[in-house]
Amino acid sequence: MQEAKTSGAFTSDVHGSRERLVRLGAAGVVIVAGATLRLTGYEAGLPYSLVKYGGSLLWGVMVYLLVSAVLIARPRTQLALSVMIAILAELFRLYHTPWLDAFRLTLAGALLLGRIFSVWNIIAYIGGILLVAAADRWLSLRRAA
Questions:
Q1: What is the pLDDT of residues 86-103, one digit of tens each?
Q2: Which backbone phi and psi does 28 adopt, to 5 degrees?
Q3: Interatomic CA distance for residues 29 and 18, integer angstroms
Q4: Where along the chain do its domains lie?
Q5: DSSP code for 89
Protein backbone atom coordinates (compact mmCIF):
# COMPACT_ATOMS: atom_id res chain seq x y z
CA MET A 1 0.00 0.00 0.00
CA GLN A 2 2.82 2.41 0.85
CA GLU A 3 4.40 1.69 -2.52
CA ALA A 4 1.29 2.91 -4.37
CA LYS A 5 1.32 6.22 -2.51
CA THR A 6 4.98 6.77 -3.29
CA SER A 7 4.41 5.88 -6.92
CA GLY A 8 1.48 8.31 -7.17
CA ALA A 9 3.44 11.13 -5.57
CA PHE A 10 6.33 10.48 -7.92
CA THR A 11 4.02 10.56 -10.92
CA SER A 12 2.50 13.84 -9.73
CA ASP A 13 5.95 15.34 -9.17
CA VAL A 14 7.09 14.26 -12.64
CA HIS A 15 3.95 15.82 -14.15
CA GLY A 16 4.61 19.06 -12.25
CA SER A 17 8.23 19.12 -13.41
CA ARG A 18 7.17 18.52 -17.01
CA GLU A 19 4.55 21.26 -16.71
CA ARG A 20 7.19 23.68 -15.38
CA LEU A 21 9.54 22.89 -18.25
CA VAL A 22 6.76 23.40 -20.80
CA ARG A 23 5.88 26.78 -19.28
CA LEU A 24 9.52 27.85 -19.07
CA GLY A 25 10.06 26.79 -22.68
CA ALA A 26 6.98 28.72 -23.76
CA ALA A 27 8.27 31.76 -21.85
CA GLY A 28 11.57 31.44 -23.73
CA VAL A 29 9.74 31.40 -27.06
CA VAL A 30 7.72 34.47 -26.02
CA ILE A 31 10.90 36.30 -24.96
CA VAL A 32 12.48 35.65 -28.36
CA ALA A 33 9.29 36.70 -30.16
CA GLY A 34 8.96 39.89 -28.11
CA ALA A 35 12.61 40.87 -28.52
CA THR A 36 12.42 40.16 -32.25
CA LEU A 37 9.26 42.24 -32.57
CA ARG A 38 10.75 45.18 -30.65
CA LEU A 39 14.17 45.05 -32.35
CA THR A 40 13.08 44.47 -35.95
CA GLY A 41 9.41 45.44 -36.13
CA TYR A 42 9.91 49.05 -37.17
CA GLU A 43 12.52 48.10 -39.78
CA ALA A 44 10.12 45.51 -41.16
CA GLY A 45 7.55 48.27 -41.65
CA LEU A 46 5.13 47.09 -38.98
CA PRO A 47 2.85 49.75 -37.50
CA TYR A 48 4.08 51.53 -34.36
CA SER A 49 1.14 50.36 -32.24
CA LEU A 50 1.71 46.71 -33.19
CA VAL A 51 5.40 46.86 -32.29
CA LYS A 52 4.96 48.90 -29.13
CA TYR A 53 1.89 47.29 -27.63
CA GLY A 54 2.41 43.86 -29.19
CA GLY A 55 5.73 43.75 -27.34
CA SER A 56 4.01 44.84 -24.13
CA LEU A 57 1.30 42.22 -24.61
CA LEU A 58 4.00 39.55 -25.06
CA TRP A 59 5.77 40.84 -21.95
CA GLY A 60 2.56 40.22 -19.99
CA VAL A 61 2.33 36.72 -21.45
CA MET A 62 5.94 36.07 -20.38
CA VAL A 63 5.25 37.25 -16.82
CA TYR A 64 2.25 34.92 -16.53
CA LEU A 65 4.20 31.95 -17.92
CA LEU A 66 7.09 32.50 -15.51
CA VAL A 67 4.78 32.95 -12.52
CA SER A 68 2.71 29.92 -13.48
CA ALA A 69 5.87 27.82 -13.83
CA VAL A 70 6.59 28.52 -10.17
CA LEU A 71 3.00 28.29 -8.92
CA ILE A 72 1.70 25.19 -10.71
CA ALA A 73 -2.03 24.48 -10.18
CA ARG A 74 -2.82 27.80 -8.47
CA PRO A 75 -4.60 29.72 -11.24
CA ARG A 76 -6.02 32.56 -9.13
CA THR A 77 -2.68 33.20 -7.48
CA GLN A 78 -0.92 33.04 -10.86
CA LEU A 79 -3.29 35.61 -12.30
CA ALA A 80 -3.19 37.98 -9.32
CA LEU A 81 0.59 37.85 -8.92
CA SER A 82 1.16 38.33 -12.66
CA VAL A 83 -1.03 41.44 -12.72
CA MET A 84 0.69 42.82 -9.61
CA ILE A 85 4.15 42.27 -11.12
CA ALA A 86 3.08 43.95 -14.37
CA ILE A 87 1.68 47.01 -12.60
CA LEU A 88 4.67 47.32 -10.27
CA ALA A 89 7.11 47.00 -13.17
CA GLU A 90 5.41 49.87 -14.95
CA LEU A 91 5.20 51.97 -11.79
CA PHE A 92 8.95 51.43 -11.31
CA ARG A 93 9.44 53.57 -14.42
CA LEU A 94 8.33 56.55 -12.35
CA TYR A 95 11.40 56.13 -10.12
CA HIS A 96 14.41 58.06 -11.39
CA THR A 97 18.06 58.26 -10.40
CA PRO A 98 20.94 59.30 -12.68
CA TRP A 99 22.46 55.80 -12.85
CA LEU A 100 19.06 54.16 -13.43
CA ASP A 101 18.13 56.63 -16.16
CA ALA A 102 21.53 56.05 -17.81
CA PHE A 103 20.89 52.30 -17.78
CA ARG A 104 17.40 52.81 -19.22
CA LEU A 105 19.00 54.55 -22.21
CA THR A 106 20.91 51.36 -23.12
CA LEU A 107 19.30 48.58 -25.19
CA ALA A 108 19.42 46.21 -22.21
CA GLY A 109 17.87 48.86 -19.95
CA ALA A 110 15.11 49.63 -22.44
CA LEU A 111 14.24 45.94 -22.88
CA LEU A 112 14.45 45.03 -19.20
CA LEU A 113 13.09 48.14 -17.49
CA GLY A 114 11.54 50.29 -20.17
CA ARG A 115 11.97 54.02 -20.38
CA ILE A 116 8.67 55.87 -20.03
CA PHE A 117 5.64 55.19 -17.83
CA SER A 118 2.44 54.49 -19.74
CA VAL A 119 -0.99 53.39 -18.60
CA TRP A 120 -1.37 51.88 -22.08
CA ASN A 121 1.50 49.52 -21.30
CA ILE A 122 -0.32 48.33 -18.19
CA ILE A 123 -3.43 47.68 -20.27
CA ALA A 124 -1.37 45.72 -22.83
CA TYR A 125 0.36 43.71 -20.07
CA ILE A 126 -2.96 42.82 -18.46
CA GLY A 127 -4.42 41.97 -21.88
CA GLY A 128 -1.57 39.53 -22.50
CA ILE A 129 -1.93 38.05 -19.04
CA LEU A 130 -5.69 37.58 -19.45
CA LEU A 131 -5.28 36.01 -22.90
CA VAL A 132 -2.69 33.48 -21.78
CA ALA A 133 -4.58 32.76 -18.53
CA ALA A 134 -7.73 32.03 -20.55
CA ALA A 135 -5.76 29.77 -22.91
CA ASP A 136 -4.18 28.06 -19.90
CA ARG A 137 -7.60 27.46 -18.35
CA TRP A 138 -9.01 26.14 -21.63
CA LEU A 139 -6.08 23.73 -22.04
CA SER A 140 -6.45 22.57 -18.42
CA LEU A 141 -10.13 21.83 -18.96
CA ARG A 142 -9.37 19.92 -22.17
CA ARG A 143 -6.73 17.79 -20.40
CA ALA A 144 -9.11 17.05 -17.54
CA ALA A 145 -11.91 15.92 -19.89
A1: 999 999 999 999 999 999
A2: -60, -45
A3: 17
A4: 2-144
A5: H
